[in-house]
Amino acid sequence: MSKLHIQVVTPDGLVFDGDAGFLVARTPEGEIGIMSNHLPLIVPLAIDSLVIKEERGGKIIMTIAVNGGIMEVRDNQVSILADSAEQAGEIDLDRAMRAKERAERNLEKAKKDHHIDNMKRAEVALNRAINRIHVSRK
């Protein structure tokens, strides 16, 4: 069975570069699984985990917290251009918890002040922090 070659890149550099049999990602429309010989695809990514496995239902090679981006699948090559991404083992859980608390405070203040833009920014920051916490615990 052929493998996928997966690259996860952010503005800060390469986060993952390797081969796998199966990839699970979340788009704004829901979860998607990618196996070898998948049809060509370009899709936006949601703030969520990216799970790279040896094969479908198999051992997890890597879990990555992805904070939005674009995924392209073509000829068993998966290119992910993420706004930011961190491997589970590199996430500072204490820092992520502080970011979550800060985002919750900012969200409450924005709601109280009826400031829509600040509320949306705080919601995104909260989602990112929760994603990092969730992925770090996998």
Automatic annotation (TrEMBL):
It is a peripheral membrane protein. It holds the Pfam family ATP-synt_DE. One of its GO terms (molecular function) is proton-transporting ATP synthase activity, rotational mechanism. It is found in: Cell membrane. Coiled coil: none annotated. Keywords: ATP synthesis, Cell membrane, CF(1), Hydrogen ion transport, Ion transport, Membrane, Transport. The keyword Transport applies. One of its GO terms (cellular component) is proton-transporting ATP synthase complex. The keyword rRNA-binding does not apply. Residues 4-85 form the ATP synthase F1 complex delta/epsilon subunit N-terminal domain. Residues 90-136 form the ATP synthase epsilon subunit C-terminal domain. Belongs to the ATPase epsilon chain family. F-type ATPases have 2 components, CF(1) - the catalytic core - and CF(0) - the membrane proton channel. CF(1) has five subunits: alpha(3), beta(3), gamma(1), delta(1), epsilon(1). CF(0) has three main subunits: a, b and c. Produces ATP from ADP in the presence of a proton gradient across the membrane. NCBIfam families: ATP_synt_epsi (TIGR01216), PRK00571.1-3 (NF001846). This is ATP synthase epsilon chain.
